[in-house]
């Protein structure tokens, strides 16, 4: 039997009783009635969450990215026991060289030694995340196909790690859908050179990858098999932004739960499960409900000010807070959604998670972090 409407009726009856069944309902009373209805819908949509909740401590090992310009990141990592922090403070420029994003360029929220020290004090492991997006595709290709540029990258990375006393480097080379077979082969060669030099010196190498459900599906030239034998410390599966490849007919979450689970299942069929890290989003998108189009990103700070925010409810398939306003559909991974996602992935066997991203008012999880996080060497 569905009890949601019974709960709604009882709550409405109580609310009206308090109001004295006045025939003149005020604006404040309308808000109360709307809130009661929304809470009942939320309870109905998320009744499965309580089945997962157990204890007050997460079982998985946590990590999180922050980026140049994310000035609110420290307010989160100083309060939480996050095992690994990954600062996206560098990119590959169009010439194929590593370029640091320094604090002076980002209102004091980029690379400087004080910021690096603060991150080190508040985490057990620290990584320099180096980005190559579609804008840097030509630089990415120059780097991975050149022995001299690869060696220069290695030297710059070693200098940074010696200066900061951080744990290692985190490679985030994206635009996978534009990769050729040669790009994939060159990327594998680049990673072999990087791990061959850094790991014997006591540093670690992490690599972010697009999620895949099978080797023959998009992005087709991102070949897990070609990477599996490279001694990377952690393979980070960025199983978010579902909306770009799969969002349709108004269902456009940041991360579908079953899709993320399937991406994990495929990843551990290729890589050691103890080296697989699953991404969890801490942000949102809004997109046209009726046609495919470019999603609009928003942060936690933005969400309460978006039209229709107070009218939302929680979606079962993604765990996300979602609402509709006119022809726009909104999907947001707030703390409750993040808790749902993490528990769902832990139940699927995931041992490590990584959040994109700290700062901007984005949430963190509701339970305590584990003290027993011991990544493989």
Describe this entry's structure for a reader.
With 377 residues, the chain is an alpha/beta fold. The chain folds into 2 domains: 4-44, no CATH class; 60-356, Glycosidases (TIM Barrel). It has 12 helices and 14 strands. It has helices at 4-19, 27-45, 49-52, 73-77, 113-121, 137-144, 147-164, 181-198, 224-227, 242-245, 257-268, 335-347; strands at 61-67, 84-92, 98-100, 125-132, 168-173, 204-209, 234-237, 276-281, 284-288, 296-298, 313-314, 321-325, 328-332, 352-356. The strands form 2 sheets. Strands 1-2-4-5-6-7-8-14 form an 8-stranded parallel β-barrel, surrounded by 5 helices. Helix 1 (4-19) packs antiparallel against helix 2 (27-45) and helix 7 (147-164) packs across helix 8. The longest helix is centred in the first third of the chain and has 19 residues, at 27-45. It starts with a helix and ends in a 21-residue tail after the last strand.
The poorly predicted ranges are 1-53
From the N-terminal CA to the C-terminal CA, the straight-line distance is: 52 Å
Question: What share of the residues lie within helices?
Answer: 25-40%
Strand content: 15-25%
Order of helices and strands: HHHEHEEHEHHEHEHEHHEEEEEEHE
Overall domain count: 2
Backbone CA Rg: 23 Å
Number of helices: 12
Structural class: alpha/beta
Mean pLDDT level:
87
Q: Please report the first level of CATH classification, the CATH class of the largest domain.
A: Alpha Beta
CATH topology of the largest domain: TIM Barrel
Q: Output the strand order for the largest sheet.
A: 1-2-4-5-6-7-8-14
Number of E-type strands: 14
Q: Which overall shape is indicated by the principal axes computed on the Cα atoms?
A: globular
CATH architecture of the largest domain: Alpha-Beta Barrel
Q: What do we call the CATH homologous superfamily of the largest domain?
A: Glycosidases
Largest sheet: 8 strands, parallel, barrel
């Amino acid at each position: 039997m569905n009890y949601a409407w019974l709960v709604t009726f009882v709550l409405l009856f109580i609310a009206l009783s308090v109001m004295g069944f006045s025939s003149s309902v005020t604006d404040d009373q309308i808000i109360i009635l709307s809130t009661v209805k929304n809470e009942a819908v939320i309870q109905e949509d998320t009744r499965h969450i309580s089945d997962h909740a157990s204890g007050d401590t997460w079982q998985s090992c946590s990590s999180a990215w922050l980026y140049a310009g994310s000035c609110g990141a420290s307010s989160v990592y100083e309060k939480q026991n996050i095992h690994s922090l990954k600062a996206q403070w560098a990119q590959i420029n169009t010439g194929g060289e590593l370029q640091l994003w320094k604090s002076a360029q980002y209102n004091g929220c980029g690379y400087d030694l004080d910021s690096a020290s603060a991150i080190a004090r508040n985490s057990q492991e620290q990584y320099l995340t180096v980005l190559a997006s579609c804008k840097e595709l030509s630089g990415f290709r120059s780097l991975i196909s050149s022995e001299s540029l690869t060696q220069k990258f290695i030297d710059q990375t070693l200098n940074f790690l010696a200066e900061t006393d951080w744990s290692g480097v985190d490679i985030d080379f994206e635009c996978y859908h534009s990769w050729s077979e040669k790009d994939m082969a060159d990327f594998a060669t680049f990673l072999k050179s990087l791990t061959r030099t850094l790991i014997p010196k006591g540093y670690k190498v992490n690599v972010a990858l697009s999620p895949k459900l099978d080797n023959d599906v998009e992005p087709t030239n991102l070949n897990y098999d070609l990477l599996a034998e490279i001694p990377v410390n952690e393979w980070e599966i960025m199983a978010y932004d579902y909306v770009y490849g799969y969002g349709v007919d108004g269902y456009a979450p940041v991360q579908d739960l079953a899709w993320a689970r399937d991406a994990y299942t495929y990843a551990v069929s290729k890589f050691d499960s103890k080296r697989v890290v699953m991404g969890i989003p801490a942000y949102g998108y809004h997109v046209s409900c009726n046609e495919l189009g470019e999603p609009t990103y928003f942060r936690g700070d933005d969400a309460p000010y978006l039209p229709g925010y107070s009218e939302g409810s929680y979606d079962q398939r993604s765990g996300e807070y979602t609402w509709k306003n006119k022809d726009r559909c909104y999907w947001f991974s707030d703390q409750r959604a993040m808790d749902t996602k993490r528990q769902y992935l832990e139940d699927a066997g995931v041992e490590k998670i990584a959040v994109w991203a700290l700062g901007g008012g984005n949430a963190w999880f509701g339970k305590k972090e584990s003290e027993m996080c011991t990544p493989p060497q």
